Amino acid sequence: MQSGLERADIAFAVNGAAVSVNVPPLRRLSQVLRDELQLTGTKVGCDAGDCGACTVLVDGDPVCACLMSAASAAGASVTTVEGLANGRLSALQASFLAHGAAQCGICTPALLVAATALLDTKPRPTETEVQDALGGILCRCTGYRKIIAAVMDASSQVVSLDFRLPRSGQAIGASPVRLDGVPKVTGAENFGGDSFPANALAVLVVRSPHYHASFAFGDLDGWAKAHPGIAAVFTAADIPGKNCFGVIGPFADQPALAEGFARLRGEAVALVAGEREAMLDLDLSDFPIRWTELPHFLQPAEAQADGAALIHANRPSNLLTSGFVERGDPEAALAAAAITVSGAIDTSYVEHAYIEPEAGHAYLDGDTLVVVTCTQAPYMDRDDTAKVLGLAVDKVRIVPTATGGGFGSKLDVSLQPLIGLVALKTGRPAALAYTRNESMMSTTKRHPAEMKATIGADAEGHVTGMIFAGDFNTGAYASWGPTVANRVPVHASGPYATPNYRAEGRAIHTHGPISGAFRGFGVPQATIMQETLYDELADKLGIDRLDFRLKNCLRNGSETVTGQGLESGVGIAECLGALRPHWERAEADADAFNSQNRDKKRGVGVASCWYGCGNTSLPNPSTIRVGIAADGTVVLHQGAVDIGQGSNTVITQICADALGLPLERFRLKSADTAISPDAGKTSASRQTFVTGKAAEKAGRALREKILRFANVSEKASLQLDGAAIVIREGEATRRIDLATLDVDADGFVFRAEETYDPPTLPLDAKGQGKPYAVYGYGAQIAELEVDLKLGTVKLIKITAAHDVGRAINPLLVEGQIEGGIAQGIGMALMEEYIPGRTENLHDYLIPTIGDVPPIETILVEVPDPEGPFGAKGLGEHVLIPTAPAILNAIRHATGVLVTKVPATPTRIRAAIREKEARA
């Protein structure tokens, strides 16, 4: 929908107030609300009506504001999320908070608006009615289950608007409302595209339409002068620093703007900066660039073929890197095994599909470049942006906004150096929000994998050996390819004792999309290979599939395939044991159903996971600062970016109990490279464990300083009374008037800053060592129904048991589990990114509210002595078992294993036909 050039006065009502705007009549209503009226609670995720994030009420009916023109709203009454509260939270908004239904929060306004319309006509809706009403709005974080519960409970009058925080010493194990939750449900939260300066230059990116091509520019200055409102055009020649970035320094290889040729479709080659209104109507089809297509290859086999051209001259055979783990003599073990099974499985590209496309703005504050953007890794962004722009790192400041989903892709630099370049060169603020198409075209994906493995067991059912090999398509640039190649061999055995083992993971360059981090770093793919073979082994041995896993799982005292001794904290047996009654019930239900049905069959599948928290055998520190101000406020510099997982709340809970003061006295200073210590990137399930441990240490250190100052023992209790600390020990009470103490540069009278880096050891040439200090564990059961004629799958229930060590916040833990399972469902059944074909949320399918079945969560708590209060990481683990459990359930129902993931109806039906032909 073009904005048009002619303007008109258009009057309508918004949230009960009359407004009039002078805009082109065809301007999108979403743009008018956001840009003219500053009602940024209405989000833009696609501009195509696919994601529903821009949903508002027009005369009481939900509509996608991105599909409605301003002229169509004339005379209407529009309600946005900002109009729901009326000074205090509505019962629905409060219910969302109480149920943990808002995680990252980017889709929350639309869900609240649509649910409000439903509740106006059906105060007590059924689950089906909720699904029907919200079916057009996509959420990538929550898994939808808590959203459904929140809407159904909103009118039950059991939801209290009084969200009391736990008392001192009682934060761990409690589920207070997220400390950053209220702005998420009122529309006040600022995401990457919500706070652009009014005078900012708008930036557009010219991108390669080809997978591999050389290019040359024409008359850029002449073209710019011919288009009123354009301020400047920038190319790689304008970059003042080193035109190269990458998340892993030794492998950094990606230019901010390509020089002379592009290695992938969607690669940035030039920037156009101009006035906002002019840029809204700018057509880049006449941009002066001449392309010459070059041969390309999208598959690893093509890239590895003899004579294949090198994508990077310094990487022979287009091999980025490989990882390797070997223990014992796997060939001899397999030769002596009573039973062996072998298989091969391929997985596809998977798109992160966060609802917030990349967005941000940059400006100069004196001689410091400030970049305000959505990110998972502010310090990494700072360092790479400084390098590209030729600035000292202390002259670049990254200010993270709320991040509307990340899942790994927002670890990589995207627009940061681009808008930084424009601001640096023009002296004016520069703003850029990716379209859905360019976000999906240019950002990282989950690695496609081509895997094969053989596993052997003795006659009693003990696994004796395993050999695994996997090629991972890392695309045109390195990104997190080295991490995937190294993490996969460590984890490919699953959480099982495997005395003889060899695994290799290879990251191979192609001209495909860049593959990077996505919730699991390659482990979900490898687990599909391993867990489907475990089912086959169990069947051949005549052992129950759950019993087979229990027989072989790691336990306290076990050694991993890297030779790491696990002394304590191994909870996989407890997870599998917790599933026992659900497994027996599910199998009985499936048997009963299958005896009565011919064309539809039920299946039950199980799969396990383990996942090392944090970097693999590398330093992984986090630093936390906490202090008490003279007014009695506890200020927590919490630099772990919260992308919806809840670190703002969880890390504060940890620090509160370590310090011995209540949550209500804490004030957060979130990630900002100018004011908060580096808490590391939000990835690899590290924040609760690593940054949480730093927060625990900082809380305890601050407590010790106060107790020492008061000359009391560690048994004393602390209490804040206004601007005073009251310290009690036995019958003695001491009161410290904070206003009488000296204040430091940060305004603190007491402060502590602590760093934690997990104790790991490097892997040797055979992959032996201690790659992780803490592992998390889990197991899931999938129950489903397959239509044998159509190949369609109906999920019935998923039961998930996860060992979290200690559930710091059980409600947030459940939300992470449900959200991870939803992404695992997508990976298993529908998500397949095809370069050049699925670059939008219409053609690329992710689970909707109707695709996620009931989920029963079982929290297993086997404390790890290394984790804060015994806690382990969780974020990645919860996705890993879902897809293999679903694939195993499909095989249980149909007798066939789909070896190309996702298991679409076409692939399931083809496998069934192939089986029937062999019969």
UniProtKB/TrEMBL annotation:
An example Gene Ontology molecular-function term: oxidoreductase activity
Record bears the keyword Repeat: no
Protein transport as UniProt keyword: no
Signal peptide: none
SMART domains membership: Ald_Xan_dh_C (SM01008)
Domain 2Fe-2S ferredoxin-type per the UniProt entry, residue ranges: 8-84
InterPro entries the record matches: 2Fe-2S-bd, 2Fe-2S-bd_dom_sf, 2Fe-2S_ferredoxin-like_sf, 2Fe-2S_ferredoxin-type, 2Fe2S_fd_BS, Ald_Oxase/Xan_DH_a/b, Ald_Oxase/Xan_DH_a/b_sf, Ald_Oxase/xanthine_DH-like
Gene3D superfamilies in alphabetical order: 3.10.20.30, [2Fe-2S]-binding domain, Aldehyde oxidase/xanthine dehydrogenase, a/b hammerhead, Aldehyde oxidase/xanthine dehydrogenase, molybdopterin binding domain
Keywords on record: 2Fe-2S, Iron, Iron-sulfur, Metal-binding, Oxidoreductase
Family recorded in the similarity comment: Belongs to the xanthine dehydrogenase family.
PANTHER family from the UniProt entry: XANTHINE DEHYDROGENASE, XANTHINE DEHYDROGENASE SUBUNIT D-RELATED
Name this protein carries in UniProt: Molybdopterin-dependent oxidoreductase
Species of the source: Mesorhizobium huakuii
